[in-house]
Amino acid sequence: MKRRITGRHSVYGVVMVNAILCAAMVLAIVFVSLPFSGCATGKGVDEIRSESHAASESPVAEEGAENRPNVDMITSQEDQVPPDSPEQKPRTSPAFKTKDIKPPPQLKPLLAVMNGKARPRKHDKAPEPSVHVELAFDNADIYEVLDVTLFELFKINYMVDPSIKANVTFRVSGDFTRTKFINVLNNVLQLNNLSIVEGPGEIFKVVRREASAGSVTAVLPAELVDQPGDVTQMVRLRYLAAATAANNIKPFLSKNASVVQDTVTNSLVITDTADNVDKAMNILAMMDVEYFTDISWCVFPVKEADAVDMAKDLKGVLKTGGLYTRQGMDSEGFEITPIKTINALLVVTRWPSILKLVEDWIAAMDHADNSGINVFVYFVENGTAVELADILRQLYGGSASASKEKTSIIKPTARPSGTGLARDLSGEVEIIPDETNNAIVFRATGRDYKLISGILKKLDTVPRQVLINVVIAEITLSGSLEYGIEWFLKDRAQSGYKIQGALDNGTEKVINQALGTGPTGLSIGLFDSVDFLRGLITALGEEGEINILSSPNVLAVDNKESVIEVGEQVPIPTGETTTAVGTVSSIEYRDTGVLLTVTPHINSGGLVKIDLSQEVSELGTKDPDLKAYSFLNRKAKTAIVIENGQTIFLGGLMRSKLDTSGSGIPYLRDIPFLGYLFGGRQQKVDKTELIFLITPRTISTRAEADAITKEFSQRVEYVKEIIKKKD
Q1: Do 357 and 269 belong to one domain?
Q2: Nearest to residue 562, comparing CAs of 527, 601, 590?
Q3: What does the pLDDT read at residue 489?
Q4: Which residue from 95, 200, 386, 589 puts its CA 20 to 30 A from 47's CA?
């Protein structure tokens, strides 16, 4: 029984094993046939895990991509992955192979890490609102101008470099958006070598123009047109060398623009106004292509003429001149292309030496059509518009009386034929001085304006200035100074005495040459050494009391009068009027003290002529009958010619004062006839001499101004030391 049961289970087991083996064979055949099927694909475990892992990471990547700005970056050819690399091969069927297409070379900007923040602007944003502006500033402080324009009108927060001190003159009228007005204001500030730039947090900064390169906002090409103030653009070049590109775009930028070359990355950092930077980017976009790698080229700006017309004329000139007939040259290796958008000429050639020839011809041909009547405005920089307009009227046929008129018309035949100046004009010239903007408006032909503007530039120069230092001192004449300073110096020179700090050639020679004659009672001397001047003051201080009344410095303009006044106003009664109410006294004030008037005249050789007038007045005694004071006046007027840096000594203005004092036994000395037995009276004469030490120094450059400031500071310190010793 037991064996049957066991045998039945064995049969069932064999059947089950056979069934499993058959199923396994069927599955194996199916899996083996799958790779050869054209309509179905399968995935291995590793591939499924890989795709599952990628799918789990893709939402995070997509979310990060939405937050990043979409900025195109340039990579060099060495950084790009070749199209046939394994990372770039698409997994496609052998029947459909895709063709690799290389993108064309493009010039794209790079964002630089700079002071400021680059913010791409949306083109679909609402337009900026306009504000009507009516402003007029005449020599106004820059802080006042910025407060009115930026803060009050447009609610713009701004910062100003504390070292900036400037005055601004301009007028503006019309409707402006915020961006347009900032550009207008930036143009005005550039006249003072300043610039307005946008910093982080929409806070604008006013900085010096040379410092704006490190302060402006880096922008994208789409922002260039609407960006206010100065902008900075960084561009990486693909084919052009940075030095070559910089030389070609500089003529199209402003005078104070910044172009920084980075030879390591072969890139440029350009800082200028938005319009000029946009113009430079257009030039680089055209030229930074592979075509210009092995040839010579240059972009020449055309300032006055039309670029298209000049290109035609220039080709004809070069052909006529036999350029194409020279050995090794042909018309296929030379091309001139006008660029209308920037009014320039692109010259491409296989011969670098030709570019200099073309540049010379462009300079000679770059002239506007001078035959038509146009309106020109000349902004006066240093003089006044009314004075310059009056000079032009007199020069070209008008008269001085015509300066009262706002407009004057000069005709070619207005002047006599003997002068020849009016005959140089080709037509009528209308001259209108604008006092508000300190400008002159001309209505004339281009040829006539070019002739007149050349004269204006020679007249409109920076006026020469003279820094005049004056030391006013009063010397008490006693002992060896009893007869005055002039006799004291001559006596010391004859006795062989040398003043401490005198010149190497001795005191006698200097004094004999320096001391001259002036008005009656006035001594004049010239000294070339600051040390001699110090020695003179020291010697005078040793012999008598010296009192430095004043040591002013005044900066005078050439041919303009300057006045130095040191003193006080004294009330003087001029009359009395008795009324029912009471007595009314009339009082006027009179100036007393030192009054020095100087008018410098500078010639081209460095000599300075000074028209000098000096007056010293002081309050005298009071008349008991008239109830009025007397005044003691000492005046001198002269003209001197000295060299730049010399010191002139003026003396001889003396004053004698009689002082009477009494001494003795009180009460007894006052007894009539017998009082002299118990006391007496003493009379003493105090003599003083007023001296002036005047040193003019002409100023032409900043370095001269710094040197003069240092020297005069030393003089002031020396005078202070003398005063301390006397105290």
Answers
A1: no
A2: 601
A3: 61
A4: 95
CB 198 within 8 A of CB 226: no
- Three-state secondary structure string covering 266-310: CEEEEEEEHHHHHHHHHHHHHHCCHHHCCCEEEEEECCCCCHHHH
Domain range spanning residue 183? 131-287
Rounded to whole angstroms, the Cα distance separating 333 from 502 reads 76
Residue 133, Ramachandran bin (φ over 0: left; ψ between -120 and 50: alpha; else beta): beta
Query: Cβ contacts of residue 543 below 8 Å, gap of 6+?
Result: 478, 479, 480, 481, 488
Cα–Cα distances in angstroms (integers) from residue 411 to residues 143, 389, 394, 451, in the given order:
46, 15, 12, 15
Q: Do 159 and 280 fall within a single domain? A: yes
In a domain, 139, yes or no: yes
Inside any domain, residue 68 = no
Which residues touch 325 (CB under 8 Å, ≥6 apart)?
none
Kindly state the tokens that stand for 18. Answer: 């056979």
Across the strands, what pairs with 570? 590
Q: Are residues 166 and 144 in the same domain?
A: yes
Burial of 470 (0-12, 13-18, 19+ CB in 10 A): buried
Rounded Cα gap, residues 716 and 262, in angstroms: 50
Q: Which residues, including other chains, have CB under 8 Å from residue 356's CB and lie 6 or more apart?
A: none
Token digits of residue 644: 């730049």
**Distance (Å, rounded) from C-alpha 102 to C-alpha 83?**
9
Which domain CATH number covers 263? 3.55.50.30
Mean pLDDT of the chain: 68
Let me know whether 159 and 222 are in one domain.
yes
Lowest mean pLDDT among 67-71, 161-165, 384-388, 537-541: 67-71
The radius of gyration of the chain's CA atoms, rounded to the nearest angstrom, is 46
For 143-160, the pLDDT digits (tens) are 888 888 888 888 888 888
| Lookup: tokens for 201 | 């947090």
Ramachandran area for residue 154 (φ above 0: left; ψ -120 to 50: alpha; else beta): alpha
Domain membership of residue 280 (yes or no) is: yes
Residues 503, 512: Cα–Cα separation, whole Å:
13
Residue 610's pLDDT band (cuts 50, 70, 90): confident
Residue 598's DSSP bridge partners are 562, 612
pLDDT digits (tens, 9 = 90+) for 684-713: 667 787 787 888 888 877 777 777 777 767
DSSP collapsed to 3 states, 257-271: CEEEEECCCCEEEEE
Write out pLDDT tens, residues 627-677.
Answer: 677 787 877 788 888 888 788 877 777 777 666 666 777 777 777 777 777
E strand map for 580-709: 583-602, 607-623, 628-643, 647-664, 679-699
pLDDT in tens, 294-342: 777 788 888 878 888 888 888 877 776 656 555 545 555 678 888 887 8
Terminal CA-to-CA distance of the chain, rounded, Å? 150
Under 8 Å CB-to-CB from 525, ≥6 apart: which residues? Answer: 489, 511, 514, 515, 516, 648, 649, 651
Residues 555 and 712 sit within 8 Å (Cβ to Cβ): no
In whole angstroms, give the CA distance from residue 160 to residue 148: 14
> Residue 238: in which H helix or E strand, if any?
none
Is the CB of residue 510 less than 8 Å from the CB of residue 532?
yes
pLDDT at residue number 490: 57
Cβ(575)–Cβ(562) below 8 Å: no
Per the rule left: phi > 0, alpha: psi between -120 and 50, beta: everything else, 501 is left
Within a domain: 31: no
Q: Are residues 135 and 199 in the same domain?
A: yes
CA distance 272 to 281: 12
- What's the token pair of residue 723? 């005063």
Helix (H, G, I), strand (E, B) or coil at 632: strand
Per the structure block, which two tokens stand in for 13?
A: 């087991």
